[in-house]
Design goal:
The structure is a single chain. With about 210 residues, this protein is α/β, with parallel strands linked by helices. It contains nine helices and eight strands. A hairpin with a 5-residue loop joins strand 5 and strand 6. Bound molecules: adenosine monophosphate. Adenosine monophosphate binds next to helix 2 and helix 3. The site of adenosine monophosphate has 18 residues, from helix 2 and helix 3.
Length: about 210
């Protein structure tokens, strides 16, 4: 099954994609995680992407398209994958159509006020992608998955969150209609608990 997870930042794409990855045994491919790792390793792509990410802007289409195109050729993608955070523009979606066949686009819908609360308290592990909320950490910043430190992403700072929401509305929200027209869209309310939302995600995908 080749899946796309759509939705604004903080909608829960990563959380549900990671769960489905273990449940279905197919990889979660997060362009945000790949870019953050590239920044951490100071690669050429990372250095180029950093200023866009820190400002809450999108990284240029050709950079992310090449990353995804190469990643989908790896052997672990042969029996399916979950694209988390890609495509984010119509140009990316059109490029994806030239090298992949998508079975469903799952759209997680969450109102802005809830997104702002979630993102401003979000803490992540840059090594393994584990994500949590400050309210769940009891003052402990050690990643329970790999032992590295949990940090606040620069682009989760309040001044950048609003920018990311505007970028989402202008550049990514049109993809909801793009996939609806193709008959691939499945929309789920992402406002409940993680368990409730995940059950709704599975139901929408007939799992
Ligand atoms: P995310 O972890 O998905 O919220 O992505 C964090 C940041 O990485 C975004 O705000 C963008 O700057 C960049 N990014 C991730 N995926 C894409 C994409 N498909 N196109 C452009 N920029 C992206």
């Amino acid at each position: 099954m080749n899946l796309i997870f759509l939705g604004p930042p903080g909608a829960g794409k990563g959380t549900h994609a990671q769960r489905l990855m273990s449940e279905l045994g197919i990889p979660q491919i997060s362009t945000g995680d790949i870019l953050r790792k590239a920044i951490k390793n100071e690669t050429k792509t990372g250095l180029e992407a950093k200023r866009y990410i820190d400002a809450g802007q999108l990284v240029p289409d050709e950079v992310v398209i090449n990353i995804v195109k190469e990643r989908l050729q790896e052997s672990d993608c042969a029996s399916g994958y979950i694209l988390d955070g890609f495509p984010r523009t119509v140009a990316q979606a059109e490029a994806l159509d030239t090298f992949a066949t998508i079975d469903a686009a799952l759209n997680l819908s969450v109102p802005d006020d809830m997104i702002i609360r979630r993102l401003s308290g979000r803490r992540v592990c840059l090594t393994c992608g584990y994500t949590t909320h400050i309210s769940q950490m009891n003052g402990n910043d050690v990643c329970p998955a790999c032992g590295d430190k949990l940090i606040q992403r620069k682009d989760d700072m309040p001044e950048t969150i609003q920018n990311r929401l505007s970028v989402y509305a202008a550049q990514t929200a049109p993809l909801v209609e793009y996939y609806d027209r193709k008959g691939l869209l499945r929309t789920v309310e992402g406002t409940g608990t993680v368990e409730e939302n995940h059950a709704a995600v599975r139901k929408a995908l007939n799992l």
